Protein 1
Amino acid sequence: MDAQTIHGRLLERFGERIRAADLEAVDPWIEVSAASLPEVCLYLRDRLELRFNMLHCISGVDYFEGDPQRSAETGWQPHMQLLYHLSSLVYRHRLVLKVRLPRWKDGVAGELPEVPSVAHVWRTADWHEREVFDLSGVRFTGHPELRRILCPDDWEGHPLRKDYRAPDEYQGIRVR
Amino acid sequence: MDAVCWHSVFFLLFALAACGFALAVVVSTNVVRMAFSLVLSLGAVAGLFFLAGADLLGGVQLLVYLGGTMLLLVFGVMLTARGKAAEMKTTPGWWLLALVVGGSLLAVLWQAAFSVDAWSTPSAGATQSQAARPTAAPIGLALLGVRVDQPLGEEGGEPVLSGYLLAFEIVSVHLLVVLVGAAYLARAQRRPGTTASEETAPRTPNSQLPTPNS
Amino acid sequence: MAEYLTQYADPRLANVIAALVHCGLLLAVAVGAAAFFNWLERKVSARTQDRLGPTRVGGRFGWLQSLADGIKLLAKEDVIPAGADSPLFRLAPYVSFSAAFCAYIALPFADGWVARHLNVAVLFILAVAGLEVFGVILAGYASGSKWSLFGAMREAAQVVSYKIPLALCVVVPVMIAGTMDLVAIGNMQRGWLTNWFLFHDPFTFVTFLVFLTCVVAGVNRSSFDLAEAESELAAGFLSEYSGFRWALFFMAERASMVAVSGLAAILFLGGWNGPLPVATWLHLVPESGLLAGWLGNLLGAGNFLFKCLVGVVFMMWLRWTLPRLRIDQVMTTCLKYCVPLAAAMLLGAMLWTYALPGGLLPGGRPIGEVPEGSAAVAASERGGR
Amino acid sequence: MSFERIDPDLVELDVGMDEILINVGPQHPGTHGVLRVLLRTDGELVLGAEPYIGYLHRCKEKIGENLTARQFIPYTDRLDYLAGMNMNLGWALVVEKLLGLEVPEKAKHLRVLMCELGRIASHLVAAAAMGLDLGSVTPFMYCFRERERIVDLFEAACGSRLTYNYITVGGVMADLPAGWLERCEAFCNEFEQVIPELHAVLTGNAIFIGRTAAIGVLSPETAIDFGCTGPVLRASGVDWDLRRDGEPIYTRLYDGYEFRVIAETEGTYPGAKRHPPVPQAAVVGDSWHRFYVRMLETVESLGLVRQAMARYRDSESPCGEPVKLTQKLPKGEAYLETEAPKGQMGFMVVGNGTAVPWRVRIRSSSFSNLSVLSELCRGGLVADVTAVIGSLDIVLGEVDR
């Protein structure tokens, strides 16, 4: 099933909760609202003609430009984007789900943005969400055990955020 | 060199080791060290047997007591003795009780040891009188089914086989059954995945079977 | 030997000298075997793996490799972990080594060439060899590491279990011979190959295979080396040991490998008797005079050591070829296969000797009858080399 | 009297002991690197196994945000350092996908050739390490002896033995040197005769079967649920291989090549007649099958290497020109997974119009394959943990990135 049809199905089922789509991109993507993500995922997974039974990857992309001059050229507001790469081993079709999040929850710096976990839909999401939380700083609500996975538990900050500054010291050891 | 009797030297060595390690069992507070001291003590006793020319007894002592019983004991100690259980403090009350029991046993042994004429008076060759003294041999043989204290039947007649063998075997089988039963009762039953840390958020399974591609 | 010395010296002094000589010889055998087999294991493993192994130390074949290894081990830092039970940790290697070494006391190398002639030598060796496990258990406990503890628990369970089939297997040749005296058992197999207990009847043959299995498990060699299991337990009871103490464990393992191979050789493979009665043809028997008897014994000792070598190489071959068993498989092998098989073989051998006392071949002799010219009785009187 | 068990879920254990927590790793011979697995055991029984990772985390994704696309190639070598060629290819292809680039025919054959050799090398290490995990040292040496020859070939082609930096955006770095194909041909012929040896010491060995059969059984549903890919997924009986089922830009490489996807379908493996039979005790999805699939794939890859050599000889085109170091990337994201030896290796590159990617994302196959570990180890024995880790064939450089 091609991205066009899938998009149609999703629009039909979820209406305006499907925010945007680019079906002509290198990898066709469909953007959904954060709140409806688990519902959409369950639909994609369980719908007999869709059956996206494998989640490949969850990636967090931080759209933030610290340099004000270049920031003006970017053409986007600072935001955080999550990408879910799905595929169906049954029908061999692929899809990219996107979720757009604020960089900080309610605009308060330091408060991580939240998105519902899909660890109960695909268990791949368990570790991948931990990784996104660890490196990109997104809080997945409803995740069974959301803690850092690659960085040490007492690490500060989320390294893949564009405004991240690596610490000079970690536990008394120079790291720069 | 003439004055040295090597036999006695080794006897003293083994005897001292046996007693010393036996004392160490009592004094030590660490269970594993206790067990190991007991191993050494029993090993020294085996050495005494070898010294006395009782090779079979020495071998059996090593095989049964050290290789069997003590090994199981040490194994059990290792399984259970972790953390606090490894240290054993003896209260004064226990000391007192142990002194009374141990002391009385010592007294009996002392009396028994020095009541042998040959020992108290080494010069007197009193081996003949020793043979007449009551020993544990009859009861040991009776446990094997031979009653030496009763006259044998006439040749060709009914042999007297009224030892304690049957009772002995019944008791030993009974003990075995008890051991097996105890082991069975001690078995743990557990449901897999019931520990709290394994609980995960309720989830609906991703249950569709992939149809084989072809 | 003590008797021989008595002619020249004070009997007490003679005894001391004889004891020291015996002790020294055995120690030389045990340690020499450890060194030799260390080198040999390197070579065997290398050849198994399509490598060369040591080639440089000491010139050709790297025959001095063991020495280099020994020096390296001695030069290593002696580490005792902070959490260890220090006295027991120090003691454990000695326990292991002395237990392995003690087995040599009763092991005859040829007719009458034995440090102490025991009439219950089989029992003694079994008992003493079983004590090696205490060193392992102590090491495992005293290291204060969970890996070591795991190793020790595995070792204890394994050794306790394998003792049963091992003893049952040993009973078979002992029963056929009617004695536990290893010198006598060895002499009974004098003559042709067919006199070896291995070929006494089909049951002894199977018993030998079970015996081999149990022995490999008993000395903790792969594929029964669960107490070490470097890929699972990170060397198990040996995790925390280094340097000389580790070397002691190593030597204990080697020494007991040789000892059990020797036991197998005497119980099943004719001991110091070759496949052909060469010594008799050459009249190298004690009856032909002291020197002839001595030469015959030298030949016999060579025979015996060769059989030990074969046994040890067999164990090496196993180790470098097979994967390791799991603990439940080890237990299953023991309790489900070895014990019933050994028991059945015991029964079978018993019935066989009852039904066919002279064996299948004509001219066989009934069991328990020591062939003519045996030095067993004489040796028991001589009591030494 | 009936002996029905009251509760079928109830597991009877030996005499219950205290639970012990044991750290397997980060330094442990059975964990294939700096993996730490926290075992909760009752005696020898494993009640839980929780992997802790990150000991080899080298901020690869962050590094990618500071380098141009071609500069990042050497860093991909250090992901799955046992199959650097395949990592190079994954990154090169995803950048080509974003750029809309197509490489010449000859470069494609070279890529197939190198990647399939890399797959053989990686599978050899997997077999070797699994044997070692089970206490069998000799197969390790056999496998490494063969791998060494592949590494020699790589060295002759690109000058490096571990981190190749060979397959690059726009093609490959250099054409093959003279005499290379003959050496490779010789290797193929000789390696073919070694495979039965490996089967003899491992695949068919009774103890090996006893240690791996029905151990760590991974059902196809669980495998897909956890995102397991590669041999781990195929050993569970899922017929899925990106070389055949992947995106066109990747499958185009294999156009015209003949190979079989190794997965048990309808009870048999393709081409299984030439290999030792599946033992009775083995269950689809267990450790033995994972091992077996790799061994069979090695043979398939050998066939692909031969085909690639033949087609390379026939192709006349140049072997591709690497793009400029400062090649600008268009705006947009591209994500591509390739069939690496350990599983599906995914790269995502987000371009913003400059030469340096805005974001680099690496989807590691070992990462997902490892996440299923606790599921597979629970209820097994301590010794099974190493067997399962060995059969999953993880590389920590790839897990931790």
Note: The mean pLDDT of chain A is 85.
Protein 2
Amino acid sequence: MEDEALFSVISKCFAPLGETDWNELTERTLWTDFIDSACGASQDERALGPEVRCDGGGGEGRLTLFRKHRRVTEIETLCVPPTYAERRTFFARHFTGGLPESALPIESLYTEWSDAPGSCFGRQRGLYLGDSATYMRELVERMGLRVPDGYSACPDHLALELDLVAVMLRNGIRTEAHRFIAERFRWLPDYRVRLIGIQDDARFYIALIDLLICIQVREDRRMRTKTVAERNVSACQREETSCQRRQ
Amino acid sequence: MARYGMLINTKKCIGCYTCLVACHRQNNLLPTENFIRFEERETGTYPNVGVENIPLQCMHCEDAPCAAVCPTGATYIGPGGVVAVEEGRCIGCKYCMAACPYQVRVVNESTGTVDKCRFCTVTATDGTKTCSCVEACLTGARTFGDLDDPESDVSKAIVELNAKPIAGDLTKAKIFYVR
Amino acid sequence: MTFVPVWGGIIACYLFLAGLGGGAFITASLVKRMHPEATGVVRVGRVIAPIVVIVGLCLLMVDARGGLYNPLRFVFLLTNPGSVMTWGVVILAVFVLAALIVLLMDLIGKNEAPAWLVWVGNVFGILTAAYTGVLLGVVNTFPLWNNALLPVLFIVSALSTGMAAVMLGGLITCPEQVKGMVDLTKVHLVLPAIEIVLFFFLLFIVAHVSTAGAASVAAMVSGGYALAFWVGIMAVGLVIPLVIEIRALRSGDNRGLAIAGDVGVLIGGYLVRYIIIVAALPVVLL
Amino acid sequence: MSEKAITRRSFLAGSAGVATLVAGGFVGFGSWKQAKAAEKTEQPVLATAHSMCNACSSKCGFTAYTIDGKLRKLIGDAENPMCKGKLCARGYGYSQIAYSKDRLTDPLRKNERGEFEAVSWDQAYSEIAEKVASIIGSDGPQAIAAVQDPRPSGKYYTTRFVNALGSANVYTHAAACDLSRASGFLQTIGASTYSSDIVNSKMTMFIGRNYADAIRPSSVAQLQQAHESGARIVIVDPRCNNTIAFADEWVPINPGTDLALILSMAHVLVAKGLYDQEYVKANGVGFDDWAAKLVSYTPTWAERITGISAGIIERLALEFAEAAPAASIEQGWRAAIGSAYRNSGETARAVCLFNTLLGCWNQKGGALFTSTVNSGALDEGRFPKVPKPAVPLLGLDDYPLANPATGSVLQAAKLAKDGAIKGMFFYQSNMAAGYANPAYLAEALGSLDLMVVIDVQMSETAMLADYVLPDTSYLERTEIPEFIDGMVPAVALRDQVIDKVLPNTRPVDQIYGELAEACGVGEYFPFTVEELADAQLRTVGLSLESLREVGTSFFADKAYAYGAVPIWNTPTGKIQFTSDACVKAGLTATPEWLAPSVMPGSDDFRLIGGKQPIHSHTQTTNIEDLMQITKDYDLTRVWMNADRAAQMGISDGDTVQISSSVHSGTVRVKVTERLNPTALWIPSHYGCSSPEQHTAYGVGLRQMDFVPFHIEPAYGSAMTEEVIVTVKKVGA
């Protein structure tokens, strides 16, 4: 599965979808393909270009092992997507606003409303239509696209952010896509905390978020240390092999 | 050059917090970032009691202890005698907060820097006619203006009402109170 | 609105470590002069001095979040020569530099550090200790801080904690060298005694000059901080070490007790800063 | 690589399928922000709209400024008679609700497990309609009822919808607000309220009314003006509230005894012949009966009850006589004469009669019946008339004096519990937390077959509902015009300020119209809210367009003039010193002393409530900016008189346990000289029990929890302060 398809699938996991569409998405071959691709993205870390992970010296072997173990459980969780009925219940209880169990995947709700002078609510959190929403709307429009009607309160809905990545990748503007991933998905750790806090079993969604966080962290580092990154490729590969040996 | 100051008539203050919330809105503040602090004083004994609500905020002192102790020069006395904070220099050591005798400086929890009343009208670019607290005050307890201009509302009111800084000559404060 | 202390544990720790560093360096110089053979103890002091001050400075930077998030802003620290904190930065910088060079020369062992450099270290060590007191002392919002006794108390406490730290290090790494230092034990004995006297005067005077001062003192001796004050500072930090030292003078060394006494001095020293920072109440100007 | 069509489908491209995009359009977040900031400082594109606040029921008019469609600033409209150019803290703070994460985003239905789940509008409508049909089928339309806290559109559409279903049962929050006042006034002067001409008065007495803590900016301004021009302002209140800033005297009365004070002042006037005898004779009926009763209400008698010395009572009466007719007792609102005590309704009657003794009706500086303008009749073709329901408003049999315009919503709750009312709709009403004992109300509303709540966030009432329908916030909709009484009557408009923030929310007019459609009575809603607003305005010579321009418009030709003799709209056409209806309802013909139903002893307290200037009941406590003030200043504390506290060994800031017969809770104490020793004062806003309101949840105590469920005889009010509590220091 191509990267763009990977993002497209995750996007659809967070968006309202009809039963037929959901069944089509989670149909066996496509989903297996998605899982493979997800494994790739989280494990061999080559999904989005050259690997740059470097967890420091010394003890990283164990750390990597631990991470790998965690990722294995993540992948296992992802292997069994929720049924349409399960998903509908989850959306009705958690991706609906104003409820004690609300956990809407909308960036504005987890970031500062605005730090620009001349905004009404300043740096408060937990408000719709913050700077990230305005940015998303304008970006989407500048690129010649349109925010769908259902998302007017939340152009910075995770599903749209992911969808935009998929669209960018599909259209071959990869550098921008990578930058977008690095910049936009910084709110996901806070969102992950919210998902952990809900009463229902949110493991499927948490696993997707973990996958995205993993990709974001890598892209962020890559953006910041582009040149260093290239130098480190070989070193990291060495670490990878030594790790495999220990296993 | 103007020398800006304010008069606060506590006899008119009903302690309604309107100035505080208006200030939040005007200056993009966090809910915890209060440029105005209220003190309430009760006098007398039941049933002969008096109540005084005293809003405090940066007094824009001429002898500003905050500016004196600021190690990075982030706090300075700017045009019009307005004590200002240059956020880009502030390291958030909070020495100014300790030095301020009026406890009217606050930490912006989001940036870690210290901030306070800016006499917002002086720097406002959005057509604001006077400080948002003055504009919002329901009872006209606040008057803002140029202390050097004897004809300004604030100068005339200070004379007429015999208003004094809250702590006398302590820091040559430029907010005058009617008590 | 109730008053919330401007600073807390982190800054208390910074003041404590800065004083301790100064005190440790001076202790090392003292030991070198009086017991040149006790090189282990001297080295302990010279190792401790720069390290704790550097740690203290790091704590300061952690507390100053505006700078922590934008480290380049620390460059501006030298731009206001009128600020005690600016002097502090200079003093601490010179001290750390001197102490580091002395330590390096000591470690390399080829040449003794020149006497003038050691004296620079000693002088700036005292200044470092004094600075921590003056930093608070010039703030006239808080009567508990704004008096001439506080810097003196902080200097004595700095010497006391510095000495305790060096002795503690000595007792752990080279106990046999520490054994013979009866004269130093006497100094070590005098400091807590002076501190108790200074503390008494400080509280007595502060309690009498203003209501805010009285309230601050009340908070320390009978209010929310009473336990920390009486048990932490007075008992653990001053009286017990004093008793231990007296006992040591009379009936000889006991390593375990000496270690306990030194640890007590350190705990007490930290609490002195902490409580003086958090118990101080501002003058009410209304 | 198995590429399926689905993975190539994009939300962003719309329906067409794969998107192609302009690569050059990409810009990083940082540069975007910089460009944005530059654009704003260079040329901020401000859009403005006039609208009305919804933070309390005053509905102040303001101009809203928006940048990029987002709210920037609110400025009170100088023209608006409610705000006179100023908004209060709540007005600024509450504007945040539009963007709050706690807003309801989708219609909700409670599932079998008692949890809310999102459903589609159509599903919600059809299920509600099915239940409505089944209730009407089995119990008739009178088993349907609605409750609303009056707002322009809400009031109109709720009433129209319920009437269209064939039911007359539309209630307001009045039973927990001003029901006794309105009902008592109706019995004496035939009007549900009046306005004291404070600015021009020589003396005005406020009984339990508190302009400075329950703010309407124009009222604060009037009071200030009166005070500054030398009017004598007297505050009768167990608590020395913040209005004292503009008052001359605080009369620290024992709560629940205001009736005794008024009767005794009347005694002084009548005994000394210092009342306007001609006026009384010309306008009143039954005065002699009242005068006969007044004989025994001497100031010495009243001193024992009210705690106010006889000398002060006599002096106040004489001052009134001196100032008359430029003097009055202000009309009050909630509390003492509104709904607090067993004698609230009778106190309201006595207030009107006392004002009559002063001869102050429609006199400059007295008590006025100011001018009103209302919408005229509309074209019945476009706005079809709803037939009058066959069965009148339920509850009036049991509480015959209750103002029929609002009814007693508490009796409605009782009827719901008894099964006479089976389906209830709520609009902008947090009945379950604010009107009476929440445990009782939860049980009563829990026995409904159908409960539908329309609101913007999950209130305690919404928590009990079977269906919750998400409303737009007040900034996101246009409503029908609000006609405002006054010296110069006016009309103001709530207009849409920002686009709908949440796409799946709907404005109240649309919700009721669609509900009506689903229930088969859609023929009564063939118009949009704009059409209705415009038609109403055209009956008074305006249009929606013209009112949009100015926000507030005045009817100068209808301005009030002093001196007109009012038409007393009572059964006798006179001011009724005696009322047959009251006798029929089991009360005395003239207002006599009626003790409150409970009285505190020397070891306990009467729990009384009141407002703080930053909150409107429970409605604003979920606003972070406002709640932060509560936290910063520890505003959830209960107030206790300093002497009582000293006796009990309680100091300022101590935590105490408060217990009534039905509830118990712990809270910190503010020890103060500003409170009558028999009272314990609690702010009435806190104790939110809805976890969906993340900011408000669990902060402070809820006054209503302590109040047992009971209803004021004859009048139907909540008697919110008929409760005795004991106080115990925690840890003592």
Note: Chain B has one domain: 4-178.
Protein 3
Amino acid sequence: MKTGFDGVFGVNSPLFIFSALAAVIVILGFAAPLGGFCTFIERRLAAGFQERIGPNRVGPAGLFQMFSDILKLLLKEDTITKNADRVIFALAPSLVLVGSLGAFATIPFTNNVLGADLDIGIFWAMALGSVVSLGVLLGAWSSDNKWSLLGGMRGAAQIVSFEIPLGIAILSAITVTGTLSMHGIVKGQAWITSGGGFWNIIHNPFLFINFFVYFIASLAECNRVPFDLPEAESELVSGFNTEFSGFRYALYMLGEFCDIILFAGLGTAVFLGGWQLPFVNLAELHVPLAIAGMNVSPLVQTGLMGGVFLAKMASIIFVVMWLRWTLPRLRVDQLMAVCWKYLIPISFFNLLGSALWVWLFKGQSILQLVWAWTGVN
Amino acid sequence: MNLINNLEFYLVFSSILFVLGLLAALTRRNAIGIFMGVELMLNAAGLNFVAFQSFRKNIGGGDWLHGHVFSLFIIILAAIEAAVALAIVLRIFAAKRNIDPYAATELRG
Amino acid sequence: MGTLSALLVAFHPNILYAAVSLIFSLLSVAGMYAALGADFLAAAQLIIYVGAIVVVILFAVMMSEDIYRGRLFDNFKRFLWPAIFSVVILSGVVKLLLQTNWSGIKDNFDRLPTTKAMGLALVGPYAIVFQYVAIVLLLGLIGAVVVARPEFHHGDHEEDQA
Amino acid sequence: MLQEFGNALSFIVLAAILPPAALGIFKFFRPSYPHAGKLMTYECGEIPKGSAYVMFNNRFYLVAIVFLVFDVEVALLFPVMMLFRDAVISGEGATQVFLLSFSFLFVLLLGLIYEWKKGDIDWIRDAEDRRRGLAKDKKWGRTLAS
């Protein structure tokens, strides 16, 4: 018999809420600091690229720099300018975080660490990602600053434009995987002897190109160089977050870094095979090891999967940071040309090619074809 | 009381949404405000479709999720409508510096 | 939350606030879709309504300078009759809803994934409609762009301002 | 499925309350000495003139419209494209899915080609500029402030 709280939601509420909270705490408790940690990594990397040292004083090799930064930003004065629209000013960073942190629910870190195993996983992540543009636009508008508004308009136009090639690139991977669920997508990319088609990026040549389309579009989605026009510091002061100071500014930065992690994670799961490795199937791995009578095999397995996933994700993030200190910024007209005249036609073509490939070869990947041809097995 | 498994809950919510949309569309003196009222009404209709689909007993026939597909088409039409309607609004604004629908009456016979 | 934000959409004098509260009422409708088991529709509502239509609305609001012109009580008579009309409709509909004997419906249902079924419907019984949607989208796109395209040769006020 | 959506919702709620919570808690620890100079809108040291809410160029709006239509298209293609692999493997209806989805895509591609030809997706409208007799800088193009 259902009573009280249970009855209202029609489900077993305490368990429901407990499970939801556990998922949130495990993943967000991990992701949000990761976003902060990225700022430190980026500073160290930037210093490396420019032959400086970078922050190395707080903690061993500067590892605790992030905590001191966060504390500093939290203790800074919170300034809201006189003409700003206070309600929307307070709301906008939340919207950005909803778009980036909220979508973390769908990233499959291992085959059991996943916030929400939605049947529409990747579509849900894209849907939440589109909320970011609202946060940018409203934040810019609410600060009543000409630079902000210009940056916000640019940012919104850029973020929404690049959603199209991003979506089509993901769509072309969907033709190969045949499912939208993140677990399903990763499972389909197992090594050939385990019945998968191996990583989608080398599934066929079209997907190989579309991975780079995805990567470029995700750079633009995160406002990263060379697409950092919304916050072009040399022309627009700081773009849409000019008037945001102290912790509010940190929230925007956290949103941006979480966006990078999010898109790196999605790219890893959709194109780079998630936690799948060549030659072994981690999902069926058994470690004959027991500590104090407890079977630690699942733990080792989860750890390995998480490690593989994070390593792939980290390499994407590294390239993103590398590009920041390598490439100059584009102009607005070039930006729009990149999106509408290059990425969208290219991704369209690759979608068509990928669908034809699936049709011709019954959904088999290059490696599977080679495997069958050489006659191993 | 089991709210989310109760058809009336959705229907009452959607009728409230519809009426508020209607009110917005009737009383706003701002074309964009009217447009937002229309969006609310469309949403209410889509919600009704999905609610009835979910609670429908399958009596014969295939299960094609007609209600869901109809809601999807409503969303799509709302998108196209948004593009065209707001383009017209901006055009009127460029001509009149004003988007009060009562101001754009030249074509009245 | 949905009702409150819909109220704000209808009554807030600042049209931008009305647009922001429209976001929340759309989100609550998406939540309702999710609760009804329409998972694809919930995400489509997010991606199309919240991610696209609201962005277009916000652009339009910001470009039209008319933010405070949605004033409600500038003409009380104009407000009174629609209000009475709406209240009558609402009370009638709700009364009707609560009086109806919903014997033809289930009191519980499974929430199964719908995406595949919707895809099958789109290429099955709704295939023609699916193609029509493409044509309508094309025409809408061309129409909207033709209307919104900046015309440089008359009216110089709209160029080079931003 | 409700459980999964519940999880997803709790992610959203937590992300939404994180900023106000952090700001609210540390309100008691951080200084607050506002004065007129601090509260002034930043404009590189100048005294701000007028409101920032100027009318914007229509180009942003054009981009938004084109985006809207293509976004709808991408969203619609997701459930259809998802069927394709299974249709191919089971051998039933692959032709149908392929033809329907790609005729859909092709119709919209026509729209993109139209925009392209008309120059609506060019940020700097060469055709219009030429008609108005504005010379285009050979090397860099004419850069409007935007």
Note: The domain at 2-27+34-131 of chain D is CATH 1.20.58.1610 (Methane Monooxygenase Hydroxylase; Chain G, domain 1).
